[in-house]
Design goal:
Residues 58-174 form the RGS domain. 70% of the residues lie in helices and 0% in strands. The chain is an all-alpha fold and 182 residues long. 25% of the residues are buried.
């Protein structure tokens, strides 16, 4: 047994190193071109300090601004939880569906991607909500994801959003918009 211990210790050390790298992930963005949609340099020039500051007023203000969504997405990627925002956005897009034929296929795609157990980008919702949504998707309507979307919205608002406001991504973005004014 003794000859195995150095080998196990070496494997554990390697695992600790890999896990340590994950836990020290950076949430800093000195170059915002990676997070802003469209033409990033022009977008950053258009983003005012006042607009970026308003994102702290409420989570819904943040979600109503395309650059706010982009910055929040970048932050969620650092936390490995961008599926929550992607699901919320997919639901918002789903609610704009006008074709009954497309409604069923879109509902099924969203369910398989985000709701189903073991979905590739599964969101964290309780069993009852998951089952209600499963039943709703059988006869889809524009509101079939409302409960699940509400739970995910609430989770992001209470959990991720406050951390986003304290994050280096957000504070760096504010600093860059303020620097442009001086």
């Amino acid at each position: 047994l003794t000859p195995l211990l150095p080998h196990l210790d070496h494997r554990n050390r390697g695992m600790r190193t890999r896990l340590g790298c994950l836990s020290h992930k950076s949430d800093s963005y000195n170059d915002f071109t990676a997070i802003l949609p469209d033409k990033p340099n022009r977008a950053l020039k258009r983003l005012s300090t006042e607009e970026a500051t308003r994102w702290a007023d409420s989570f819904d203000v943040l979600l109503s601004h395309k650059y706010g969504v982009a910055a929040f997405r970048a932050f969620l990627k650092t936390e490995f939880s961008e599926e929550n925002l992607e699901f919320w956005l997919a639901c918002e897009d789903f609610k704009k569906t006008r074709s009954a034929a497309k409604l069923a296929s879109k509902a099924q795609r969203i369910f398989e991607e985000f709701i189903d157990v073991q979905a590739p980008r599964e969101v964290n919702i309780d069993f009852q909500t998951r089952e209600l949504t499963r039943r709703n998707v059988q006869e889809p309507s524009l509101s079939c994801f409302d409960q699940a979307q509400g739970k995910v919205h609430s989770l992001m608002e209470k959990d991720s959003y406050p951390r986003f406001l304290r994050s280096k991504i957000y504070t760096d973005l504010l600093s860059q918009t303020q620097r442009r004014l001086s």
